[in-house]
Specification:
Elements (H helix, E strand, L loop, with lengths): L9 E7 L3 H14 L4 E3 L8 E6 L4 H21 L2 E6 H6 L1 H6 L5 E3 L7 H9 L5 E3 L21 E5 L1 E2 L10 H4 L4 E2 L2 H13 L4 E5 L8 E2 L5 E2 L1 H9 L6 E5 L8 H9 L6 E3 L7 H6 L6 H14 L4 E8 L6 H14 L3 E6 L17 H25 L4 E9 L5 E5 L5 E5 L8 E9 L4 E5 L2 H7 L1
Parallel strand pairs: 1-2, 1-3, 3-4, 4-5, 5-6, 7-10, 10-13, 14-15, 15-16, 19-21
Antiparallel strand pairs: 8-9, 11-12, 17-18, 17-20, 18-19, 20-21
Helix pairs in contact: 8-9, 12-13
The structure holds 5'-deoxyadenosine (5AD) and iron/sulfur cluster (SF4).
Iron/sulfur cluster (SF4) binds next to helix 6.
């Protein structure tokens, strides 16, 4: 028997691109590989297996994968590192990846993570590249292990996947497939396991999360509002968020949940993409700019302090200057706390890629610059407005400087404050002292001191 009989620990490096769903999927891939002796490392150097969990949403995101694969090839040549491409590029390009980068060992789509051990074993045996981009009828969720320890304080939980909306610019309905909601009991089990591991905030994930319609133990269908109310009963779960929502699925019960469920945080990412009715129609968004504004008014009535964020696309085919201005007008009217904005990127296989009047890059650049300047202004104003206020901050982890913790306000603003490590996981009233470009600084508000000095 060897002196050291510990099992050989294999090193796994996962690089995640794109959305929070991929972050969640990467954690699940690490969980399914753990029983095979894989433990995660920070860099690809010396790793036995490198997984690129990829994003296909825009061309730039997809191209990054091939340049990263090129960088990893020498590592494979030198150490025999196994290379796997997972996620949406794998789903969309499948065989084409193996044609372009034949040294890749495993290609697997987002519905095949539970088969990862089998695919990796095949590749290890040298049985050739393993490819799995099927949409199996069985749910991968039935095969995934419960969340491991060390989840941190804020965790993601996928409740819904896929999209049936078919916005004309978007690849998601093709890469992630049709809408699917998990069963309520399974979601609650996963949420309870997370909370038992020290998680205090759960973000419910779905490509179209507010289209959620899961079935409970009694066979009743629950919408997202009802799910949030049910999860809010879990002892120790302080905060619930959800992303990403579609304006068309924002039903009255979910809006009511924002009024009656304090655990549901007053922050909503509700992409609108454009403020022009003609473009909203061409994008197949299924609503007008006014319908979006009416929805925001309803939400603000239910939860007056709700903050909003959105996604915007500039330079969609045929976008005129006036249509672009309509987007700026909508932004001025809503006032967003933060937002994401992108130049339109034609994606193969989507209807918009075939439209005439693609907008030149220089015009797209100019519009994006203008739009982002306005959004930045609004974000700064939103953050500056919290200076001086006392807000509940859920502290999550150590900050960059010694003795510092980073946490979040209900409105998803990062806050750093001087605090001992054991304050992580607690919600503490914090006076906001200053607002920087990307975070706020604060000091925990000592109520006893205030009373003494009063
Ligand atoms: N080009 C640019 N942006 C896109 N998005 C989705 N598809 C495209 C595309 N083809 C943006 C949308 C979406 C976000 C996740 O990515 O704004 O809400
Ligand atoms: Fe893509 Fe539209 Fe579905 Fe969002 S709603 S994932 S933008 S098709």
């Amino acid at each position: 028997m060897p002196l050291d009989s510990r099992p050989y620990v294999k090193k796994l490096h996962i690089k995640t691109y794109g959305c929070q769903m991929n972050v969640y999927d990467s954690a699940k891939m690490a969980d399914v590989l753990a029983p095979l002796g894989y433990s995660q490392v920070e860099t690809p150097d010396g790793a036995d297996l490198v997984i690129l969990n990829t994003c296909h949403i825009r061309e730039k995101a997809a191209e990054k994968v091939f340049s990263e694969l090129g960088r990893l090839k020498p590592l494979k040549d030198a150490n025999g590192t196994l290379l796997a491409v997972a996620g949406c590029v794998a789903q969309a390009e499948g065989e084409a990846i193996l044609a372009r980068a034949p040294y890749v060992d495993v290609v697997l789509g987002p519905q095949a993570y539970h088969r990862l051990p089998e695919l990796v074993a095949r590749a290890t045996r040298g049985a050739g590249a393993a490819l799995d981009t099927d949409f199996p009828v069985e749910s991968k969720f039935d095969h995934l292990p419960a969340p491991g320890a060390n989840q941190g304080v804020a965790a993601f939980l996928t409740v819904q996947e896929g999209c049936d909306k078919f916005c004309t610019f978007c690849v998601v309905p093709y890469t992630r497939g049709a809408e699917f909601s998990r069963d309520v009991a399974a979601i609650e089990r996963e949420a309870r396991a997370l909370v038992a591991n020290g998680v205090g905030e759960i973000t419910l994930l779905g490509q179209n999360v507010n289209a959620f319609h899961g079935v409970d133990e009694a066979g009743n269908e629950l919408g997202l509002g009802a799910l949030a109310r049910r999860l809010a009963r879990i002892e120790g779960l302080h905060r619930i968020r959800y992303t990403t929502s579609h304006p068309r699925d924002m039903d009255d019960d979910l809006i009511a949940a924002h009024a009656d469920t304090p655990e549901l945080m007053p922050f909503l990412h509700l992409p609108v993409q454009s403020g022009s009715d003609r473009l909203l129609e061409a994008m197949n968004r299924g609503h007008t700019a006014q319908a979006y504004l009416d929805l925001i008014a309803k939400l603000r009535k239910a939860r007056p302090d709700i903050a909003l964020s959105s996604d915007f696309i500039v330079g969609f085919p045929g976008e005129t200057e006036a249509e672009f201005e309509a987007t700026l007008d909508l932004i001025r009217e809503v006032k967003f706390a933060q937002s994401f904005s992108f130049k339109y990127s034609p994606r193969p296989g989507t209807p918009a890629a075939l439209l005439d009047k693609q907008i030149p890059e220089a015009v797209q650049d100019e519009r994006l610059y203008k739009l982002q300047a306005l959004l930045r202004e609004q974000q700064d104003a939103f953050n500056a407005a919290t200076v001086g206020a006392i807000v509940p901050v859920l502290y999550e982890r150590a900050g960059r400087n010694a003795g510092q913790l980073i946490g979040k306000t209900p409105w998803l603003q990062a806050v750093h404050a001087q605090l001992p490590d054991d304050a992580a996981g607690k919600v503490l009233p914090t006076r906001i002292l200053a607002s920087g470009a990307n975070s706020l600084s604060g000091v925990v508000h000592d109520q006893t001191q205030e009373r003494l000095s009063a």
